[in-house]
């Protein structure tokens, strides 16, 4: 992210902190609770957003070199993502062209040849059929027409994007819009290094899971012992880019950094930058770590979802260390002590993983399961999204618009 923009956002965050202000959507809106429980709506969402819309599979760093691969079943299709000998990204249907066996069940690895475990046909990382065992006995096969089935895919701005339909079209620039595309490019996401993942499979609708990323109003009450130790609640800077948005938060360390010359300011070290990418992706930067969260509905149970949380090191985000300052290496062991000092905080992957367990799983998503139960009871017609929760207005109005539903109704005091 360009430095001038980081400084501009930090000034706005400091203004919010100093004056007890925050973002203001200008109104309260009502969200029907059926949006989290209606099976017919869920089926339409699945088709429209998860079958007919491009999907972020990961960041480029998940395929760090030629021969790298990973598999995914989150979109209901077995996918084998590879980087071929020439470094090109592919997303194949993970099914052998003989009789459909999965070529590999590994989550990820490195190889240039995939030998089918069923009858040992072999395929290259670019999808070509290389060999048929006992070809004479099997019979003549046109190898040019029996390569792996390839899904449309694009690698750009450090994002690995796939379209679940064979004839799907991915126009990433049109989807992101020029302003967000430029901002994402400025992060140089292609340099992020994959460090591992966590999976949260819990009884809450995918949109409730998404809602937990959409406001900081709950920090002071829900995250008293966890995230609120590290981050300021309430203060937030919010911006929309078409169907996507960005929410910036301030960490406690902004109070130290504000004393330094502006030229040394660094937003990822003074807070967190969270992008929401339509329809189901959150990309969060915190110190020199990035977290990519993709939230998938459970097709059988409306009130269940799976969040795949990938962790990356972001080497190009320079750590801000004031001269002579102590550097505090933050791990899972000292995560919530760290904020009590004024030392520079540098989170590692264990700290970020812990953050996603102790905060997101045990607090945010846990609370989301309660919200889900309330919605499922059918006794509450709607939930309220406040003036200080604009990202929730935006997310819900967006997906409603995409489905041809009217925008959320304003709540007014009678
Ligand atoms: S199914 Fe793959 S070789 Fe037979
Ligand atoms: Fe939270």
Explain what you see.
The chain is of the alpha+beta class. The protein has a 7-stranded antiparallel beta sheet with strand order 13-19-18-17-16-15-14, sandwiched between helices. The protein has a 5-stranded antiparallel beta sheet with strand order 6-3-4-5-10, with no helix packed on it. It has a 3-stranded antiparallel beta sheet with strand order 22-1-23, with helices on one face. 28% of the residues lie in helices and 29% in strands. A hairpin with a 2-residue loop joins β14 (231-241) and β15. The protein has helices spanning 3-19, 39-51, 135-138, 172-176, 178-186, 206-211, 219-222, 227-230, 254-257, 267-270, 335-338, 349-377, 390-402; strands spanning 28-32, 55-59, 68-72, 79-83, 89-93, 108-110, 113-115, 122-124, 129-131, 150-151, 153-156, 159-162, 193-202, 231-241, 244-251, 271-277, 281-286, 289-297, 305-313, 327-330, 344-347, 382-385, 409-411. The protein contains 13 helices and 23 strands. It folds into 2 domains: 3-52 and 192-410, Naphthalene 1,2-dioxygenase Alpha Subunit, Chain A, domain 1, CATH 3.90.380.10; 55-162, 3-layer Sandwich (Rieske Iron-sulfur Protein), CATH 2.102.10. It binds FE2/S2 (inorganic) cluster (FES) and fe (ii) ion. Fe (ii) ion binds next to loops.
List the helices and strands and how they pair.
Blueprint lengths: L2 H17 L8 E5 L6 H13 L3 E5 L8 E5 L6 E5 L5 E5 L14 E3 L2 E3 L6 E3 L4 E3 L3 H4 L11 E2 L1 E4 L2 E4 L9 H5 L1 H9 L6 E10 L3 H6 L7 H4 L4 H4 E11 L2 E8 L2 H4 L9 H4 E7 L3 E6 L2 E9 L7 E9 L13 E4 L4 H4 L5 E4 L1 H29 L4 E4 L4 H13 L6 E3 L3
Parallel strand pairs: 20-21
Antiparallel strand pairs: 1-22, 1-23, 2-12, 3-4, 3-6, 4-5, 5-10, 7-8, 8-9, 11-12, 13-19, 14-15, 15-16, 16-17, 17-18, 18-19
This protein binds FE2/S2 (inorganic) cluster (FES) and fe (ii) ion.
